[in-house]
Amino acid sequence: MSKRFTAGAVATATALALTVTGVVGPANAEPTATREFTVVAESGVSADAAIAAIKAAGGTVVSRTDEVGLYQVTSDRADFASRAAANAALLGAAEKKVIGRKPKLDRVERENLVAKAKAKGAAAKRGTKMDPLDEKLWGLGMIRADKARKVEPGDRRVTVGVLDTGLDASNPDLAANFSWSLSRNFAPDIPEADGECEVASCLDPVGTDDGGHGTHVAGTIGAAADGFGLSGVAPNVTLVELKGGQDSGFFFLDPVVNALVHAGKVGLDVVNMSFYVDPWLYNCTANPADSPESQAEQRAIIEAMTRALNYAHRKGVTLVGSLGNNHEDLGAPRTDTSSPDYGADPYPRPIDNASCWDFPVEGPHVIGVSAVGPSGKKADYSNYGTEQIAVAAPGGWYRDGFGTDTYRLDSNMILSAYPKHVLQEEGSVDENGNIVAGFEASVFKECKANGDCGYYTYLQGTSMASPHVSGVAALIVSKYGKKVSGGLGMDPNKVERQLYRTAAEHACPEPRLQTYTNEGRPAEFDAFCAGSSTFNGFYGHGIIDAYAAVTTRM
């Protein structure tokens, strides 16, 4: 997941400070500078009633998402949030506050760079070469995507939304499959969080990605199989950018909800979600460790995300999400020590599994994905658990192969597309576009005869596992979908069933209590695999199988 589940991450971004329902502000509050709020209406309240309530509280609606009762509001009243929360028509008002900035380097996804370990050579080739770099894509071979494309390479009419930090459409591997007409940016840059805006409006044009995460995800899903660079799981489907994440890697409620609503309205077939909604690792209805204001904020996030996920599902969108990189059983979560991830220091929050959720992956209709390394073993960082998991997929594991010459190799991770300018910012590509000495084993450059170049690098995480599943879901729609409104469509429930029934069953390891001490991890990483060979907490229904998914009759 982008930025996700890295305990102790330095804070950044937009704070959503919701007031608790029933708290009334001072009657004679003085006007203040104009502020921005995200307001969530109570269930069943009409748009007209919600807008009237917002106006009565002293706010002005500047944009609205009626499908889920979400409103963007400005107000110059210091007490607007409390006045809004006191109105029975409104669930709460979340003020947008910029607090700080996030470190650029993710400690899980870029473990190879954080460790500063030098590669010891190339790992054994595990894939079948199609495009020049495909020999490094062991994940394609593990899920038999190389065989699947001979039967079903994907249909251009099938659309996959990448709800992420953006998508670099200048990469030749992605340009061929990119939809300019369907793509949207829902997350304007916040200078104090993301750095200086690249354009005057702070709304980056579609086809760009200043974070890199979304481009990497998109490449795994649907990079073109065209004899250049590398190819994705579903190389002929259409990629749609849904920018819901900040350049700094944070994902806030309003952009994510609006991206999901857009996906439903335009009829996307699949949406990949490799993130959690900030600022809470878990959103709880009434955690005693939280203040009343924080409790109200989390209830609003729970309600808005539930509405948005249900809306997209009703409109025919198959929803895929990463389980997260916090190495914990999501059915028995540890005390949360990383939330909130901005502003004041995070504090310990015991998590009650019955009343706390990690969104979007624990939301309705989301297919939860764990990550495995090249050996098929659950990656040490990957979350797991029988309550939330659906399937497993290649996510990469830098530390896989202990005791062999493949231990701690970049090639144990997932290679995919990445923006050149982000690699330049990270120091692995120079100002002339050449790979810096020492990074030859982790960054690759491919150029066409016309001078167009694509760049590629390794990441690991459940963020990298989820797009493998989204790619297979897109192949299923391509193979079995029906013509609808000039495209193809398929009931998400049927897509989900086909994914599960064709996954390669994988029994729990023995002993079931797995330790990662050999890989240098403390006891906190120990993981118990509960369940049977047909369904368990590490692998769910199994490791996805693209070939079986498109050759097994429904």
How do the strands and helices of this protein lay out in sequence?
Elements: E1 14-18, E2 31-41, H1 47-56, E3 60-65, E4 70-77, H2 80-85, E5 90-98, H3 111-114, H4 138-142, H5 145-151, E6 159-164, H6 172-175, E7 184-185, H7 191-194, H8 213-222, E8 238-243, H9 253-266, E9 270-273, E10 283-284, H10 292-314, E11 318-322, E12 356-357, E13 366-372, E14 391-394, E15 414-417, H11 420-426, E16 443-447, E17 453-459, H12 462-480, E18 482-484, E19 487-489, H13 492-502, E20 513-514, E21 527-528, H14 546-551
Helix pairs in contact: 8-12, 9-10, 12-13
Can I get a quick summary?
With 554 residues, the protein is of the alpha/beta class.
